[in-house]
Amino acid sequence: MTAWRTRAAALLREPLVHFLVAGALIFVVLSGRPPDTGERRIVVDEAAVSGLVNRYVQAFRRAPSNEELDGLIRDYVRGEVYYREALRLGLDQDDEVIKKRLRNKMLAIAGAEAEATQPSDSDLQALLDKNPARYAAPPRYTLEQRYLGPDSPALRAATQAALASLKPGARPSLPSQPIPLPGRLESAPAFDIASAFGDEFAAALDKAPVGQWSGPVLSGFGLHLVKVERREAPPAPKLADLRQRLENDWRSAAVRKAEEDNLNALLEGYDVVIERPE
What we know:
Elements: H1 2-12, H2 15-31, H3 46-60, H4 66-88, H5 96-116, H6 121-130, H7 132-135, E1 140-149, H8 153-164, E2 184-189, H9 190-197, H10 199-205, E3 213-218, E4 223-232, H11 239-267
Antiparallel strand pairs: 1-2, 1-4, 3-4
Helix pairs in contact: 2-4, 5-11, 6-11, 9-10
């Protein structure tokens, strides 16, 4: 008898039992009658409770207490009741937010297999060979720059005139202005230069002549004279150095293709009529 009482007491302490009792009471109160079969019967089984617990653990890094689990279960039942009543009232009809969420779920289903697929090395190499420039490292530059001042038509004209009269090997006579950036860069990557001087300045270096002064080159500060001493081409990109990036791009393309193929297959079952306004 004592062993039976011990097992019964342990059973009554189980969160699942608390949930079943609370869920049944909530449903009875909301429906006004005992639960029947069909869509008005709400069953929260062990899998549903496990899902609630798992999401709680992921959010709070600990298991819920009995009281907290009871609250999670009550909220789950409440959500089911509202969801079903909303469907009964047709609140899901012509709702763009709901349509978008359902569309996203369909896309997730369509792309799930592609998302889980692991590309082979040959797949990744083919992607790399198709567009090597996309994965190449940026060039590096060794250069000297002189800041001339804020951009203006007069300063541009003076700069162009000074460069036109500049003799080979001579330095420009235009006075430079102080600026909180280095006057000389050694083997600097293009993206570092862009971060310091701006994208337009870095882009101009790709077309600047090597070994002579050129300009005016515009930065975020104003106009510069630039002498590119060395432009280092990046090494050929290698699969081993880019594996994760290539995998991400390959999988993204595979998911998009799977989604498009799924849509085309579904469209075969529809007669699409488009009526444009006159």
